[in-house]
Each structure stands twice: as structure tokens, then as C-alpha cells.
Amino acid sequence: MNNEASFWIIFNVSILTLLTLDLFVFNKGNKVVTTKSALQWSAFWVGLAMAFNIFVYYWKGREAAELFFTGYIIEESLSVDNLFVFMLIFSYFRVPSEYQRKVLFWGIIGALVLRALFIVVGIELIEHFDWLLYILGIFLVYTGVKMLFSSDDDEIDPENNIILKLTNKFIRVTKTYEGDKFFVRKEGILYATPLFIVVLIVESTDVVFAVDSIPTILGITTDTFIVYTSNVFALLGLRSLYFALSSVMKLFHYINYGLAVILSFVGVKLLIHSWYEIPHKYALSFVVLSLGLSVLASWLFPKKENEKLNF
């Protein structure tokens, strides 16, 4: 077995082990996640990503480390949009606070599988059809411009989620939550619980976000190693980040503008790559600067109370 194959096995087994320990050992039982605990776990996952980045530097060199860090920053920042939608979904379905951690755990497991599939298919297509890079570039510029001019009132309506509609047609669902169970049997008949429906909607929502995030990271590099690992580490910290920022996320009301600029930048980078290849260090600097300015603007120019989003 070569070093590359050994790495993939060890990496994926390690990630699954960490997630299992997180849910069943360190955070077992249904309890409300405190802000302090969420911040500690967020620091752990970010620290783990940075430690892995150092490993990449010594194993694959400076360029690979810069690409990983750029991809990680982009994926983590795009995840902020996911957090807003998770908040909306939990509010809409009135998911008890003590069950939200379990929902996000299984949502992330599904997201890891789906994104791995998207990445493999996307890279395979690009390697055989180079012109797809230009399609991705146009798509990212369009998405960035659309995000730039979108309104705060443009919300996702969970009730119109296609997964919810299909589930209600083919599966019996209980009217109330049955603890933290996804399925229960009543009078010999198997029922899904609303908690299972919420997991499916979280999964389908991530698919929608992956349509933006995967092309974005592919605009930085088509190296499977970089794309996959940066996605994994961004997703690992997503659950803790949700609980750490859920009370203050509304303060970052200008971050969408920063994300819109980043998406458009990566799109332009793809469109001009045949004529000019933007150095990785400049791309990384632009991403960090765009995010930093959007966060700074949110802090310097807070929205008035009656302008904030309602969840």
C-alpha cells in the first residue's frame, strides 16, 4: 500500500473516531450546549485544522499549505450562511435545544459523504472537460453578484422544502417529538419523528450550499487532497461554531457582502486562468482581507434593532 492510500485510510478513520468520541463520550446525553463549551470545542477544531495545515506544510510544501488554508477559510466563512439557515430550521420546527446537537451531528456525517461525492465527480469532470472551469467561473460570478444584491428578507421556507414534501407522502410521521429518537414503533407500525425530518432538511440544505462552496474551492485548486481535507475540517467545526455564534450571528450582517466579493473574485480567477494565474498568496490575502473588512464593517456600523433579522 502506497503512502497516499495509507493517508486516506488513516485520515478518514481518524475523523470518524473523533466524531464518535465527540458525540458518545465527551458530549454524551441530551443537554443544552453552553456558549463556553461551544467556544472551547470551536477552538479545538480550529486548532486541529491549523495543526493539520502545519502537517501539510512539511509533507507537501508551502504551496499546498497555502492552498489548504485558503480553502479552509473560504469553506468556513461560507458555512456562516448555513448557520443562519440552521437557526431558521430549528426555530420553524421548534427543535428543543437539547436535541439540536444530535441533529447537527448526523447532518454533518451526511454532509461529509455527499461533499466527498461532489468533489470526486467535480474534479473528474474538470480533468476531462477543461472548459467546465469557465462555466464554474461564470456561475461563481453570477452567484456573487446575486448575493451582493440579495435582500435580508430573502429567506428559505422550510415548509416548501422538497425533502419534507416527499417524506410526508411516503413515511408516517409522529405529531410530536419522541425524545431524541428518529424512529418509533406504535402498534406494530414504524413512524418517523419530526427530529428525523429535521435531519433530512439539514442534509438537503447542505446540498444546496455545496453547490456554491464546492465550485468555489475548485476555483482555487483541483487537488483532491486539498479540496477534500479543507472541506472536512470546515465541516467538523460547524456544529460547535453554530452554538458558539448562535446568539451573536445577527451582528455579522455585512459578512454576505464579503462572501459575495470572494465568490466573484474566484469566478474571475477561473475566467482569466488561461491568460494569468493569480498567485496563491495573493488569493489568500484577498480572501482574508474581504472577510476582515466585512466583519469590521458589521462592528463599526451595527444595524438598528428594528432592522435585524427575525428567527
From TrEMBL:
GO terms for cellular component: membrane
- Asked whether the UniProt record includes Membrane among its keywords, one would answer yes
UniProt main location, coarse: membrane
Q: Which residues cross the membrane?
A: 6-26, 38-59, 71-91, 103-125, 131-149, 189-211, 217-242, 254-276, 282-301
Compartment(s) of residence: Membrane
Q: How does it sit in the membrane?
A: Multi-pass membrane protein
> Cross-referenced InterPro entries, in alphabetical order?
Integral_membrane_TerC, Integral_membrane_TerC_rswitch
Sorted alphabetically, the keyword list is: Membrane, Transmembrane, Transmembrane helix
Task: Name the Pfam families on file.
Answer: TerC (PF03741)
In which family does this protein belong, per the annotation? Belongs to the TerC family.
Name recorded for this polypeptide: Probable integral membrane protein, TerC family
Species annotation: Cytophaga hutchinsonii (strain ATCC 33406 / DSM 1761 / CIP 103989 / NBRC 15051 / NCIMB 9469 / D465)
